[in-house]
Specification:
By secondary structure, the protein is mainly alpha-helical. It has one domain. It is 51% helix and 7% strand. The protein has five helices and two strands. Helix 4 packs across helix 5. The two termini are 12 Å apart.
């Protein structure tokens, strides 16, 4: 199965998701990431779990305000990892 890389920003990151989960959202990925295809994003290391959630939900990035503290970033990264896991499970 072809996999799409997820960058590590939290201690519980999932590492990768099935390509067929994110593939239907190619256009949103291009909108959110300067016209880059999913293939190009994967070649560059993939997306963070946060970015992947926005793409899969067809939302512009960023929808939530940026949080600058290390603790806030870790908390948001953990939350997005959990959301991403649930999205992947629901699409399989």
């Amino acid at each position: 199965m072809k996999m799409f890389p997820i960058q590590r920003y939290a201690s519980d990151h999932i590492g990768e998701i099935p390509w067929d989960v994110i593939d239907p959202h190619e256009e949103q990925a291009r909108l959110n990431h300067g016209g880059q295809s999913l293939q190009r994003l994967a070649e560059r290391g993939g997306l963070s779990s946060c970015e992947a959630v926005y793409v899969i939900l067809d939302c512009p990035f960023p929808l939530f305000p940026n949080l600058n503290s290390r603790d806030s970033h870790e908390t948001w990264a953990h939350a997005h990892n959990e959301i991403l896991k649930a999205l992947v499970k629901s699409k399989q």
